[in-house]
UniProtKB/TrEMBL annotation:
Tetrapyrrole methylase domain ranges (all copies): 218-429
Residue positions, PTM Phosphoserine: S128
Protein's organism: Parapusillimonas granuli
Gene3D superfamilies: Cobalt-precorrin-4 Transmethylase, Domain 1 (3.40.1010.10), Methyltransferase, Cobalt-precorrin-4 Transmethylase, Domain 2 (3.30.950.10), NAD(P)-binding Rossmann-like Domain (3.40.50.720), Sirohaem synthase, dimerisation domain (1.10.8.210), Siroheme synthase, domain 2 (3.30.160.110)
Protein name listed in UniProt: Siroheme synthase
Domain Sirohaem synthase dimerisation residue range list: 151-207
Listed pathway(s): Porphyrin-containing compound metabolism; siroheme biosynthesis; siroheme from sirohydrochlorin: step 1/1; Porphyrin-containing compound metabolism; siroheme biosynthesis; precorrin-2 from uroporphyrinogen III: step 1/1; Cofactor biosynthesis; adenosylcobalamin biosynthesis; sirohydrochlorin from precorrin-2: step 1/1; Cofactor biosynthesis; adenosylcobalamin biosynthesis; precorrin-2 from uroporphyrinogen III: step 1/1
Domain Siroheme synthase central: 119-145
Record field: catalytic activity: uroporphyrinogen III + 2 S-adenosyl-L-methionine = precorrin-2 + 2 S-adenosyl-L-homocysteine + H(+); precorrin-2 + NAD(+) = sirohydrochlorin + NADH + 2 H(+); siroheme + 2 H(+) = sirohydrochlorin + Fe(2+)
Gene encoding the protein: cobA
Gene Ontology biological-process annotations: cobalamin biosynthetic process; methylation; siroheme biosynthetic process
Length: 470
């Protein structure tokens, strides 16, 4: 270990920054956030530092460096563009036994300023000892994605209750179990839901319980249409914290690859022709059983759970069972697949509204507002319609939509095998048969679909009248 990691308390302590340019300003603002008493100096200063000086937040000396500036300092930072001057500052600081950092010059530095992930009071610092600052920044970016911003609030809460926790759990093993529950259970979930009072009440109730409560619960996560790059940070965190993952059939393997390695993965996808209600009851039972056993369950659904995904039914069940839950939205297929096909769902010249429609309703109920769906200047997105294309196109045309209305079927949207079949509504069913369109696929109908051949950028784009290659 070349450098000894250390966190310095600079509250009210004098730090001298030689330099007053853009880089110096960035360092100074970071020092101010740590409560340092900053003295900066250079003949010229940035407008931002001039403003900080006028506000009395820093002492600014618009002059050439003098050794006397270093008197009374705890730390020194040299941030000028003159290496000879930086070297002189470093030498004078070392003679006074002061730690000095020369920006972008580890050879002249006695300490390095790390890349920081700030979840105060939790602070994570990353250093490459000055040899690869780009790598340190890249690591910071990755670590940033792993930790929710409410982690700092959780750390403050844990610190405030630390004496009470030690008193209530004098046994070290039981105290560790309690902290595991605190970090992974309903207290952390309440803070993520911006309910600090509920979090505090949960903690206080658990403190007076004879045993540490179960940390089990369910996170309903939308996985998007398939491209793992479309996962939200919250979805990625949930996958990395899961004990059990109940995933749908259409959740891509690439998304599942991002999950915690030792999590149990259970496929609960509904298959064509089976009793979907029975399958849904099985999903409910699996969520209940594993959550009550203290497991952190991720219910992973393709697209977004609240757009034709029965997510509402699952939350109703969890509420009835008294099981804690959270929801992480996903990018629904209409948004993602249209974007990957280069089709804007709205366009001021072509469409002023979007309608999301399921091609399958409960108890085989049919869409009863075909006249409204057949209006022009709107975009229709039909989910789960790959097997009903002839019916859908016939209904739209029968209720007034022109046979020349553009359509696009996006198969395997956002995935490696994406195909976009586009043409006129009157030829939809025949073209889909000839090109063997299969699920997962979403149907878009409306004037904006005419833009698909011009704006396509991902996967294959196929005109409806193109010959099928055998």
């Amino acid at each position: 270990m070349r450098l000894f990691p250390i966190f310095a308390d600079l509250q009210g302590r004098r730090v001298v920054v030689v330099g007053a340019g853009t880089v110096a300003e960035r360092k100074i603002r970071s020092l101010l956030s740590a409560g340092a008493q900053v003295v900066a100096g250079a003949p010229e200063a940035t407008p931002g530092l001039l403003q900080l000086s006028r506000e009395g937040r820093i002492t600014l000396r618009q002059a050439s460096f003098e050794p006397g500036w270093l008197e009374g300092a705890w730390l020194v930072i040299a941030a000028t563009g003159d290496r000879a001057l930086n070297s002189r500052v470093a030498r004078l600081a070392s003679e006074r036994k002061l730690l000095v950092n020369v920006v972008d010059d580890p050879e002249l530095s006695s300490f390095q300023v790390p890349s920081i992930v700030d979840r105060s009071p939790l602070t994570i610092a990353i250093s490459s000892a000055g040899s690869a600052p780009v790598l340190a920044r890249r690591m910071r970016e990755r670590i940033e994605s792993l930790f929710d911003h409410t982690l700092g609030t959780l750390a403050e809460l844990a610190g405030r209750y630390r004496p009470a926790i030690r008193q209530a759990r004098p046994d070290l093993r039981r105290r560790r179990e309690f902290y595991d529950w605190l970090l992974d259970g309903p207290v952390a979930a309440a803070l993520r839901s911006r309910k600090p009072d509920a979090a505090r009440e949960l903690l206080e109730t658990a403190l007076h319980a004879p045993e540490t409560p179960s940390r089990g619960g369910v996170v309903l996560v939308g996985a998007g249409p398939g491209d793992p790059g479309l996962l939200t940070l919250n979805a990625l965190r949930a996958l990395n914290e899961a004990d059990i993952i109940l995933h749908d059939r259409l959740v891509s393997a690439d998304v599942l690859e991002l999950a915690r390695r030792d999590a149990d993965r259970i496929s609960v996808g509904k298959l064509p022709g089976e009793d979907h209600d029975a399958t849904q009851r099985r999903i409910h039972e699996l969520m209940r059983r594993h959550a009550l056993a203290g497991k952190r369950v991720v219910r992973l659904k393709g697209g977004d759970a609240f757009v034709f995904g029965r997510g509402g039914e699952e939350l109703e069940f969890l509420r009835e069972q008294g099981i804690p839950y959270e929801v992480v939205p996903g990018i629904t297929a209409a948004l993602a697949c249209a974007a990957y096909a280069g089709i804007p769902l709205t366009h001021r010249h072509h469409a002023q509204s979007v309608r999301l429609v399921t091609a399958h309703c409960r108890d085989d109920a049919q869409v009863d507002d075909w006249h409204a769906l057949a209006r022009e200047k709107q975009t229709l997105a039909f989910y789960m319609g790959a097997g009903r294309l002839e019916f859908l196109s016939a209904q739209l045309i029968a209720h007034g939509r022109s046979e020349d209305t553009p359509f696009a079927i996006i198969e395997n949207g956002s995935r490696a095998g994406q195909r976009v079949l586009h043409g006129r509504l009157g030829e939809l069913a025949d073209a889909a048969r000839r090109h063997a369109v299969k699920s997962p696929a979403i149907l878009l109908v409306g004037e904006v679909c005419a833009l698909a051949p011009q704006l396509e950028w991902f996967g294959a784009s196929i005109p409806a009248d193109e010959a099928v290659v055998c």
